[in-house]
Write a structure and sequence with these properties.
- With 78 residues, the chain is of the alpha+beta class.
- It has a single domain, classed as Translation Initiation Factor IF3, CATH 3.30.110.40.
- It is built from two helices and four strands.
- A four-stranded mixed β-sheet has the order 1-2-4-3, with helices on one face.
Length: 78
């Protein structure tokens, strides 16, 4: 069973959403999912880029008003 976690980063500005997301993913086991909610418009670019760079899988990305929600599956890299 895949564990799921959430992270509320609304109100934080670049680079904090990516830094906090990266820190949260470091604490999880490979295959765990993290749902991140952010309001910084730059996170639309930054979070997918971080996933690609760090070996995580961006499962979903959607927007509701000013809130962007990312669902990330942690990769196998340490």
């Amino acid at each position: 069973m895949t564990s799921s976690h959430s992270l509320d980063l609304k109100g934080l500005k670049c680079p904090l959403p990516v830094l906090r997301t990266r820190q949260a993913l470091m604490r999880l086991e490979a295959g765990a999912r993290l749902v991140v909610e952010a309001s910084d418009p730059m996170s639309v670019l930054d979070v997918p880029h971080m996933c690609n760079e760090d070996g995580h899988r961006l499962i979903a990305q959607d927007r509701q008003g000013d809130i962007i929600r990312f669902t990330i599956e942690k990769g196998n890299r340490p």
